[in-house]
Amino acid sequence: MLKENLAHVEERITEACLRAGRKREDVTLVAVSKTKPVEMLREAYGLGIRVFGENKVQEIRDKYDSMPSDVRWHMIGHLQTNKVKYIIDKVELIHSVDSLKLAEVIEKEAAKHNRKADILLEVNVAEETSKFGLKTVEVLPVYEKIAQFPHINVRGLMTIAPFVENPEENRSVFADLRKLSVDITEKNIDNVNVSILSMGMTNDYEVAIEEGATMVRVGTGIFGARDYSVH
Ligand SMILES: *Cc1c(COP(=O)(O)O)cnc(C)c1O
Protein backbone atom coordinates (compact mmCIF):
# COMPACT_ATOMS: atom_id res chain seq x y z
CA MET A 1 0.00 0.00 0.00
CA LEU A 2 2.75 2.42 0.96
CA LYS A 3 4.52 1.82 -2.31
CA GLU A 4 1.39 2.60 -4.36
CA ASN A 5 0.57 5.63 -2.21
CA LEU A 6 4.03 7.02 -2.63
CA ALA A 7 4.01 6.45 -6.38
CA HIS A 8 0.66 8.23 -6.57
CA VAL A 9 1.87 11.23 -4.54
CA GLU A 10 5.08 11.36 -6.58
CA GLU A 11 3.08 11.39 -9.81
CA ARG A 12 0.79 14.16 -8.59
CA ILE A 13 3.76 16.27 -7.46
CA THR A 14 5.39 15.83 -10.84
CA GLU A 15 2.20 16.81 -12.64
CA ALA A 16 1.66 19.86 -10.45
CA CYS A 17 5.24 20.93 -11.17
CA LEU A 18 4.62 20.51 -14.88
CA ARG A 19 1.43 22.57 -14.75
CA ALA A 20 3.27 25.31 -12.89
CA GLY A 21 6.33 25.21 -15.14
CA ARG A 22 8.51 24.25 -12.19
CA LYS A 23 11.20 21.62 -11.78
CA ARG A 24 10.41 18.52 -9.74
CA GLU A 25 13.67 18.89 -7.82
CA ASP A 26 12.59 22.31 -6.59
CA VAL A 27 9.92 20.69 -4.42
CA THR A 28 10.89 18.61 -1.39
CA LEU A 29 8.47 15.98 -0.21
CA VAL A 30 8.35 15.77 3.59
CA ALA A 31 6.80 12.44 4.56
CA VAL A 32 4.76 13.18 7.67
CA SER A 33 5.07 10.05 9.79
CA LYS A 34 3.54 11.24 13.06
CA THR A 35 1.68 8.51 15.00
CA LYS A 36 3.00 5.87 12.56
CA PRO A 37 5.14 2.97 13.78
CA VAL A 38 8.84 2.76 12.98
CA GLU A 39 8.19 -0.28 10.75
CA MET A 40 6.24 1.95 8.38
CA LEU A 41 8.96 4.57 8.42
CA ARG A 42 11.49 1.88 7.57
CA GLU A 43 9.35 0.76 4.67
CA ALA A 44 9.17 4.34 3.39
CA TYR A 45 12.93 4.62 3.85
CA GLY A 46 13.32 1.49 1.73
CA LEU A 47 11.30 3.22 -0.98
CA GLY A 48 13.70 6.14 -0.99
CA ILE A 49 12.17 8.56 1.53
CA ARG A 50 14.77 10.43 3.57
CA VAL A 51 12.88 13.45 4.91
CA PHE A 52 10.42 12.63 7.69
CA GLY A 53 8.15 15.15 9.42
CA GLU A 54 7.07 14.71 13.02
CA ASN A 55 5.07 17.01 15.26
CA LYS A 56 6.02 15.79 18.73
CA VAL A 57 9.40 16.07 20.41
CA GLN A 58 8.96 12.78 22.23
CA GLU A 59 8.15 10.95 19.02
CA ILE A 60 11.27 12.24 17.30
CA ARG A 61 13.35 11.08 20.28
CA ASP A 62 11.69 7.67 20.25
CA LYS A 63 12.10 7.09 16.51
CA TYR A 64 15.49 8.73 16.07
CA ASP A 65 17.67 5.83 17.17
CA SER A 66 15.56 3.26 15.33
CA MET A 67 16.12 4.82 11.93
CA PRO A 68 19.25 5.06 9.76
CA SER A 69 21.46 8.04 10.45
CA ASP A 70 20.93 9.65 7.05
CA VAL A 71 17.26 10.31 7.83
CA ARG A 72 16.55 14.04 7.87
CA TRP A 73 14.04 14.82 10.62
CA HIS A 74 11.81 17.85 10.31
CA MET A 75 9.94 19.24 13.29
CA ILE A 76 6.62 20.47 11.94
CA GLY A 77 4.52 20.76 15.12
CA HIS A 78 4.19 23.36 17.82
CA LEU A 79 7.43 23.47 19.80
CA GLN A 80 7.57 24.38 23.47
CA THR A 81 10.63 26.32 24.56
CA ASN A 82 11.50 23.84 27.30
CA LYS A 83 11.71 21.00 24.76
CA VAL A 84 14.05 22.60 22.23
CA LYS A 85 17.05 21.04 23.94
CA TYR A 86 15.84 17.51 23.19
CA ILE A 87 15.77 17.91 19.42
CA ILE A 88 18.19 20.68 18.55
CA ASP A 89 20.90 18.18 17.59
CA LYS A 90 18.46 15.82 15.84
CA VAL A 91 16.48 17.87 13.36
CA GLU A 92 17.48 19.33 10.02
CA LEU A 93 14.73 21.94 9.98
CA ILE A 94 12.20 23.36 12.43
CA HIS A 95 9.15 24.48 10.43
CA SER A 96 7.16 25.86 13.33
CA VAL A 97 8.90 28.85 14.89
CA ASP A 98 6.08 31.14 15.91
CA SER A 99 7.64 33.59 18.36
CA LEU A 100 10.78 35.56 19.06
CA LYS A 101 10.95 33.85 22.43
CA LEU A 102 11.13 30.40 20.86
CA ALA A 103 13.82 31.63 18.45
CA GLU A 104 15.84 32.95 21.39
CA VAL A 105 15.79 29.53 23.02
CA ILE A 106 16.75 27.84 19.74
CA GLU A 107 19.62 30.32 19.42
CA LYS A 108 20.85 29.45 22.90
CA GLU A 109 20.60 25.69 22.43
CA ALA A 110 22.18 25.78 18.97
CA ALA A 111 25.07 27.78 20.40
CA LYS A 112 25.62 25.10 23.05
CA HIS A 113 25.99 22.54 20.29
CA ASN A 114 28.12 24.88 18.26
CA ARG A 115 25.83 24.53 15.27
CA LYS A 116 23.52 26.70 13.21
CA ALA A 117 19.84 25.79 13.36
CA ASP A 118 17.76 26.03 10.20
CA ILE A 119 14.27 27.29 10.88
CA LEU A 120 11.11 28.51 9.18
CA LEU A 121 8.69 31.05 10.58
CA GLU A 122 5.17 29.72 10.87
CA VAL A 123 2.59 32.15 9.55
CA ASN A 124 -1.08 31.94 10.40
CA VAL A 125 -2.05 33.41 7.04
CA ALA A 126 -5.77 32.85 7.47
CA GLU A 127 -5.59 34.15 11.09
CA GLU A 128 -7.50 31.19 12.46
CA THR A 129 -7.78 31.45 16.24
CA SER A 130 -7.25 27.70 16.58
CA LYS A 131 -3.80 27.85 15.00
CA PHE A 132 -0.32 28.83 16.04
CA GLY A 133 1.80 31.12 13.94
CA LEU A 134 2.66 34.75 13.45
CA LYS A 135 0.18 37.07 11.83
CA THR A 136 1.27 38.21 8.38
CA VAL A 137 2.01 41.75 9.61
CA GLU A 138 4.26 40.42 12.38
CA VAL A 139 6.50 38.38 10.12
CA LEU A 140 8.92 40.95 8.71
CA PRO A 141 10.02 42.52 12.03
CA VAL A 142 10.47 39.11 13.63
CA TYR A 143 12.28 37.80 10.54
CA GLU A 144 14.71 40.72 10.59
CA LYS A 145 15.51 40.23 14.26
CA ILE A 146 16.05 36.48 14.07
CA ALA A 147 18.15 36.86 10.93
CA GLN A 148 20.74 38.56 13.14
CA PHE A 149 21.02 35.60 15.51
CA PRO A 150 24.43 33.99 14.98
CA HIS A 151 23.26 30.39 15.45
CA ILE A 152 20.08 30.51 13.39
CA ASN A 153 19.48 30.49 9.65
CA VAL A 154 15.96 31.63 8.84
CA ARG A 155 15.34 29.75 5.62
CA GLY A 156 11.77 30.73 4.89
CA LEU A 157 8.11 30.49 5.79
CA MET A 158 5.60 27.80 6.64
CA THR A 159 1.85 27.80 6.88
CA ILE A 160 -0.87 25.34 7.76
CA ALA A 161 -3.83 26.22 5.59
CA PRO A 162 -7.39 25.85 6.86
CA PHE A 163 -9.15 22.54 6.58
CA VAL A 164 -11.37 22.82 3.52
CA GLU A 165 -13.38 20.46 1.35
CA ASN A 166 -12.16 21.92 -1.90
CA PRO A 167 -8.39 22.60 -2.04
CA GLU A 168 -9.03 25.51 -4.41
CA GLU A 169 -10.33 27.39 -1.39
CA ASN A 170 -6.76 27.48 -0.07
CA ARG A 171 -5.19 28.84 -3.23
CA SER A 172 -5.30 32.42 -1.95
CA VAL A 173 -3.70 31.37 1.36
CA PHE A 174 -0.74 29.87 -0.50
CA ALA A 175 -0.56 32.83 -2.86
CA ASP A 176 -0.51 35.18 0.15
CA LEU A 177 2.39 33.32 1.77
CA ARG A 178 4.30 33.41 -1.47
CA LYS A 179 3.61 37.13 -1.85
CA LEU A 180 4.88 37.71 1.67
CA SER A 181 8.09 35.87 0.81
CA VAL A 182 8.57 37.99 -2.29
CA ASP A 183 7.87 41.21 -0.36
CA ILE A 184 10.44 40.28 2.29
CA THR A 185 13.06 39.26 -0.26
CA GLU A 186 12.59 42.50 -2.21
CA LYS A 187 13.53 44.52 0.85
CA ASN A 188 17.10 43.21 0.43
CA ILE A 189 17.84 43.12 4.13
CA ASP A 190 21.22 41.72 5.18
CA ASN A 191 21.05 38.01 6.02
CA VAL A 192 17.39 37.91 5.06
CA ASN A 193 16.56 35.42 2.39
CA VAL A 194 13.30 33.53 1.98
CA SER A 195 14.04 30.45 -0.07
CA ILE A 196 11.79 27.82 1.47
CA LEU A 197 8.01 27.89 1.36
CA SER A 198 6.60 24.96 3.34
CA MET A 199 2.94 24.74 2.42
CA GLY A 200 0.47 22.10 1.33
CA MET A 201 -0.67 18.86 2.95
CA THR A 202 -2.42 15.74 1.62
CA ASN A 203 -5.59 17.61 0.78
CA ASP A 204 -4.05 20.56 -1.02
CA TYR A 205 -0.37 20.02 -1.89
CA GLU A 206 -0.95 20.23 -5.64
CA VAL A 207 -2.51 23.68 -5.34
CA ALA A 208 0.33 24.66 -3.00
CA ILE A 209 2.91 23.59 -5.59
CA GLU A 210 1.11 25.56 -8.28
CA GLU A 211 1.37 28.59 -5.96
CA GLY A 212 5.08 28.13 -5.27
CA ALA A 213 5.55 25.63 -2.44
CA THR A 214 9.13 24.34 -2.22
CA MET A 215 8.23 21.87 0.54
CA VAL A 216 5.03 19.91 0.88
CA ARG A 217 4.15 17.98 4.04
CA VAL A 218 2.21 14.85 3.18
CA GLY A 219 1.09 12.37 5.82
CA THR A 220 -2.20 10.64 5.09
CA GLY A 221 -1.52 10.49 1.36
CA ILE A 222 1.57 8.37 2.01
CA PHE A 223 0.96 6.48 5.24
CA GLY A 224 -2.84 6.30 5.29
CA ALA A 225 -5.25 7.72 7.85
CA ARG A 226 -3.97 8.23 11.39
CA ASP A 227 -5.54 6.42 14.31
CA TYR A 228 -5.36 8.70 17.33
CA SER A 229 -7.36 6.32 19.52
CA VAL A 230 -4.31 4.16 20.17
CA HIS A 231 -2.27 7.07 21.52
C1 LIG B 1 -0.12 16.24 10.31
C2 LIG B 1 0.50 17.38 9.60
C3 LIG B 1 0.69 17.35 8.21
C4 LIG B 1 0.23 16.21 7.32
O1 LIG B 1 -1.16 16.18 7.22
P1 LIG B 1 -1.88 15.22 6.17
O2 LIG B 1 -3.20 15.85 5.96
O3 LIG B 1 -1.98 13.88 6.83
O4 LIG B 1 -1.05 15.17 4.96
C5 LIG B 1 1.32 18.43 7.61
N1 LIG B 1 1.75 19.49 8.34
C6 LIG B 1 1.58 19.55 9.67
C7 LIG B 1 2.08 20.75 10.40
C8 LIG B 1 0.95 18.51 10.35
O5 LIG B 1 0.80 18.59 11.67
Tell me about this structure.
- This protein is an alpha/beta fold and 231 residues long.
- The chain has one domain (2-223): Alpha-Beta Barrel (TIM Barrel), CATH 3.20.20.10.
- It is built from 9 helices and 8 strands.
- The protein has helices at residues 2-20, 38-46, 57-64, 84-87, 100-112, 136-146, 171-186, 205-210, 220-223, and strands spanning 28-32, 51-54, 72-75, 91-97, 117-122, 152-158, 196-198, 215-218.
- An 8-stranded parallel sheet has the order 7-6-5-4-3-2-1-8.
- The two termini are 23 Å apart.
- Pyridoxal-5'-phosphate (PLP) is lined by residues 32, 34, 55, 76-77, 160, 201-203, 217-221.
Keywords:
TIM Barrel, 9 helices, alpha/beta, eight-stranded parallel β-sheet, binds pyridoxal-5'-phosphate
Sequence-ordered SSE layout with sheet pairings:
Elements (H helix, E strand, L loop, with lengths): L1 H19 L7 E5 L5 H9 L4 E4 L2 H8 L7 E4 L8 H4 L3 E7 L2 H13 L4 E6 L13 H11 L5 E7 L12 H16 L9 E3 L6 H6 L4 E4 L1 H4 L8
Parallel strand pairs: 1-2, 1-8, 2-3, 3-4, 4-5, 5-6, 6-7
Bound molecules: pyridoxal-5'-phosphate.
